[in-house]
Amino acid sequence: MIDKTVPDAAAAVAGIPDGSTVMMGGFGRAGQPVELIDALIAQGAGDLTIVANNAGNGDTGLAALLAAKRVRKILCSFPRQHDSWVFDGLYRAGEIELEIVPQGNLAERIRAAGAGIGAFFSPTGVGTELAEGKEARTIDGRDYVLEYPIRADFALISALKADRWGNLVYRETARNFGPIMASAATTSVVQVDEIVPLGSLDPESVVTPGIFVNRVVAVGERVWLEDGAFVGGVDLEGRPVSAPEGAAL
Amino acid sequence: MSTRISREELAQRIAADIREGSYVNLGIGAPTLVANFLPEDQEIILHTENGLLGMGPAPDAAHVDPDLINAGKQAVTALPGAAYFHHADSFGMMRGGHLDVCVLGAFQVSQTGDLANWSTGAPGSIPAVGGAMDLAIGAKAVYVMTDLLTKTGESKLVVECSYPLTGVGCVTRVYTDHAVFDVTPEGFALREAFGDNTLESLSKLTGLTLTSAEEN
Asked: Which residue in B has a C-alpha nearest to residue A122's C-alpha?
C-alpha cells in the first residue's frame, strides 16, 4: 500500500539538511505553505537556498524563515514589496544573496527541471542586464538566450486536497507555482486542508498527479472556507476582518 | 500649458481601442484602470499572470478571498467562464504570443520601441522584475500607458533609454496624457493629439523628430 501521508508538519519537513535548495510555492501569500515553513523553522535547517516568486511578506512564512537567518541565497522574481521589510533589511546589510529571474523564466526553468529538459532558449530578457553573459542565439529571425533548469532538493507546496497517493487539487490562484515545483524537486512536500479517501478526487480534475509528490500532510481547513464552501470574513492575509490592526495571524 | 488628459480619461481612451474577443493583460498600477472602462456589453477576457483568465472586478470586503488575487496581489473575482492555471502555463500564454494586448507602465520608451519600466538603476535599490520582461515581449500588441513627461519635465519618450531595459523593440503604441504615438520604423508617429497639442508642440516637448501617423 502506498501512503504518502505524514502525521504532522514536523514529520513533513523531517530530514531537510543544512545547505539544501528548497522551493516554496506561493505568489505573495496565496499558496504559500505557511505551516510547512513554520515547521522548517522549528526543524532548524540552515544555509538554505530558497527558490520562490517573492522574498517573504510581513513577518510570517518565508519572511520568518529569513528573519531566523536560515537562508543564504534566494532566487526569485520580485523580492521588493510593500511588506518585504525582513528581506529588505537582510539584503541591505549584505546578509543574503539574491538572484533575480524574470517570472516567466523562473516558472519555465522550474518546469524544465521537472520535465527533464537540459536547457531552453527564451526570448524573455533578451537585450537586458538580466541576460548579460548568457549564451544567445537567433532562431528564425528572433533572438533568444539560453536558460538552464532550476531543480531543488525539496519543494514545499500548499494545495487544497490530496489523497494518500499524493494526487492534488488546488484552489483558485493559490495554484501558482505548486504543480511545477512538485515536479522539480527530489522530495516534494505538500500541505493540504484535507486528505480525502483514495478514489474521491475526480481523475479528470487532478492537477498534480501523485507521481510528483512524496509527502502529504493535512493542516486543517483554511479559515475562509467551511466544509469546502467560501464563507469569507477575512482580509487578504487571511485574518478575520474584525481583528484589530496589526494583529498576528 | 498644453492640454493633458487625466489618468481616467487615458484609461478610457485605451479601453476604446481594445476589441471584443481580445485576451488582455493589464499591468500593475495605472494600467489596471483600463478595466473600469471596458464596455460591459462586450466579452473581453482579462489575464492575470498569477494564473487566471476571466478576471473580474474587486469583490466587496465580505467576499475578499486570499486565494483569489491578481498580479498586484489585490483581491479580485473570477467571472463565469474563468479558468485557473499554473505559472508555467500562464507565462506560456504570454511568451507564446497568445495574448492580444498587454498594457504596461513605463519609465522610458525609445523611438525604436525599447521599453524601460522595471528599474531606475539607482544604487542601493533592490531589483525586482516580476513578469515585466515576459509581458513586454509576449503580447501581440504592447501598449504603454504613461505621462509624457516626468515630474521634472523630462520626456519619457527618448532616442535611447538611459534606464535598464525591460525589452528591446517591443512597444507597439504609447498612450500618454498629451497624445497617442505609434512606434514605427521611422520612430514615433503621432496618432492622436489631445486638446491643443500639435505635432510641433509635441516635438518641442519631447525633443524628438516625430512623424504624423497619416503619413506612414
From this structure: B95
Question: Over 50: is that where the pLDDT of A249 sits?
Answer: no
The mean per-residue pLDDT over the stretch A29-42 comes to 96
Q: What is the pLDDT of residue A245?
A: 52
Predicted local distance difference test score (pLDDT) of residue A29: 86
B203, part of any domain:
yes
pLDDT score, position B2: 85
Partner B contacted by A77 (CB < 8 A): yes
Residues of chain B contacting A172 with CB distance shorter than 8 Å? 52, 65, 67-68, 78, 84
Whole-number pLDDT of residue A102: 97
Interface of A with B in 143-172 (CB under 8 A): 143, 170-172
Q: How far is A129 from chain B, CA to nearest CA, in Å?
A: 7
Q: Look at A176 and B64 and tell me if their CB atoms are within 8 Å.
A: no
Partner-chain contact A172 B74, CB within 8 Å: no
Contact B167 A170 (CB under 8 A): no
- Burial degree of A159 (CB within 10 A; 0-12, 13-18, 19+): buried
Whether B156 is covered by a domain: the verdict is yes
Q: Where does chain B show beta strands of DSSP type E?
A: 23-26, 45-48, 52-56, 77-84, 101-104, 108-110, 115-116, 141-146, 157-158, 173-176, 179-184, 187-193, 211-212
| pLDDT tens, position by position, A186-236 | 999 999 999 999 999 999 999 999 999 999 999 999 999 999 999 999 999
- Whether residues B52 and A100 touch (CB distance < 8 A) is answered with no
Mean pLDDT score of chain B, rounded to an integer? Answer: 95
Query: What is the tally of structural domains in chain B?
Result: 1
B58 at the A interface (CB within 8 A)?
Answer: no
A9-117+152-218: which CATH architecture? 3-Layer(aba) Sandwich (3.40)
Percent of chain A with pLDDT over 90: 92
Q: What pTM, to 2 d.p., does this model score?
A: 0.95
Q: Which residues in chain B are contacts of A79 at CB distance < 8 A?
A: 126-128
Q: Do A124 and B164 touch (CB under 8 A)?
A: no
The whole-angstrom separation of Cα B38 and Cα B17 is 10
User: Where exactly are the structural domains of chain A?
Assistant: 9-117+152-218
